[in-house]
Write a sequence for this structure.
């Protein structure tokens, strides 16, 4: 005899409940994964925003330099030259104030004078140099070499002579290399002799 095989019947109600429970678990799992992804995204977004706020640089604002805070010196490479010979003069600026400040070399007037007559004004005749923005830290020197070709100039134009318009050499004598800052008093920076 063979054992009877009886088919077990699963009630429909049990199948429906099982399917619904499984479906609810699956929906709950999908919901939890979705919430976790959103939470992680929000976390990284807030961290990125914090880091961005910390690293955003604000422009620094510096006051303009004042005459009392700027030390100026003029130093010729040699003190005596032959007529028609050129020379270099080093202009040095130093902020003697307590705070950094801004200026341009155009705030300084430099000239070579003989008997009160100006024959050379290098900064006024150089728009590139006169408009150069400078940020001077306290006790931090800045220098610029000013080259003079030994010729005489009037209003930034070389004085010429003859039909060929030959440039005139600066006259022999002892020149005062003078400077003034911010339209202030003119001071002697050095002397230069042309022989």
């Amino acid at each position: 005899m063979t054992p009877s095989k009886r088919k077990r019947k699963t009630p429909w109600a049990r199948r429906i409940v099982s399917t619904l429970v499984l479906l609810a678990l699956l929906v709950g799992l999908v919901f939890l994964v979705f919430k976790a992804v959103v939470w992680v995204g929000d976390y990284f977004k807030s961290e990125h925003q914090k880091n961005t706020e910390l690293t955003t640089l604000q422009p620094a604002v510096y006051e303009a330099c004042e005459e009392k805070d700027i030390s100026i010196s003029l130093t010729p490479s040699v003190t005596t030259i032959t007529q028609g010979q050129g020379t270099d003069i080093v202009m040095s600026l130093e902020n003697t104030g307590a705070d950094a400040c801004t200026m341009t070399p155009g705030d300084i007037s430099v000239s070579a004078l003989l008997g009160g007559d100006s024959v050379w004004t290098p900064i006024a005749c150089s728009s590139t140099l006169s408009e150069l923005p400078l940020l001077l830290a306290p006790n931090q020197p800045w220098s610029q070499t000013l080259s003079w070709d030994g010729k005489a100039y009037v209003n930034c134009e070389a004085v010429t002579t003859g039909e060929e318009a030959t440039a005139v050499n600066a006259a022999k004598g002892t020149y005062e290399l003078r400077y003034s800052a911010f339209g202030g008093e003119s001071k002697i920076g050095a002397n230069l002799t042309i022989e």
